[in-house]
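ingest -> validate -> predict -> emit
validate: passed (alphabet ok, no gaps, 336 aa)
predict: started
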Amino acid sequence: MDLAFSGEQKNRTPTKQWSEGEAAAKLKEFDDKIKDSRENHGEIEVRDAMIDKAEFLSFELRDYTEAEKVFREAYKMSGGASKKMEILFETLLMNIEKEDTESVRKDIETCHKLIEEGADWDKKNKLKIFEGVYCMMIRDFKKSADLFVNSIATFTAVELMSMRDFVFYTVVLGLMTQDRKTLKKHIIFSPDILAMNREIPHLKEFAESFYRCDYRSFFKTFIEICGMVAKDKYLKGHAFFYTREMRLVAYKQYLESFKSVTIDTMASAFSVSSEFIDKELSTFIYNGKLACKIDKVSGIIESHQENKRAELFGTSLRKGDALLNRVQKLARGLEI
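emit:
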């Protein structure tokens, strides 16, 4: 028996309201089938019967604790790496629903070992989405975005989230954590993202205004996106963190273009008050998150953003000088 991990989403809503007596009778049917399989068939039939019971417990009765016990018994009876991962995906779904991050972490580690043992590519691709959700839950947004960006063309984890939700997470986390080259290739101009982000209110304008440095439009759509983040089941616990860090990323991107700029000019660019920008930047500067300083008298922001190109050039010169000195010493030694 194959679980529904072929790209088609299994119905995970109860078919009806089960009374205590009905549920007990149905569970007895599963137990009788398991017993018959043990007596008259092989381990594969026993495992499949146990999976049927676990699915009933999970989908119909929402008894995740008992369902997980049965799934793990079936896991022990499974031989192939791919089949084991199918069962672990089921336990992952339940533990993600329960927000049991420790159990999710352990199962993801086990899945990585099964990948090394030869699980198929579909399971490997699906695992990225599960791990990405886990990373969202523990606020590792950078790793989550990396996993989602690498899964845009191979997304099949429809049992965990819809493609619409996947695109939303990829965009909102990608803008906060990815460099501009990655944003351009995998988000702004990605055909898979473009095909879906128009269906999500404000998302396309949010991404494109940030990439085009149109901060006035960005801040307007950012308010709407923040409202969506605050209601999302995985991100709502991190809504304050996300809104703060996303603003910081936008400020950094803006200040990279200037050696100095007035508070009024920056406030106008973001369509907010000068007092708001002053307070925001002061907080980030105080916390060591922004490399700049504010001249209160003149109202000027002096940016001290690192010039990576100049730093790399300087490092190359220093290494070149050191190498030249070593070559000269070697040459003198050979002459002797």
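Strands lie at 260-262, 292-295, 300-303.
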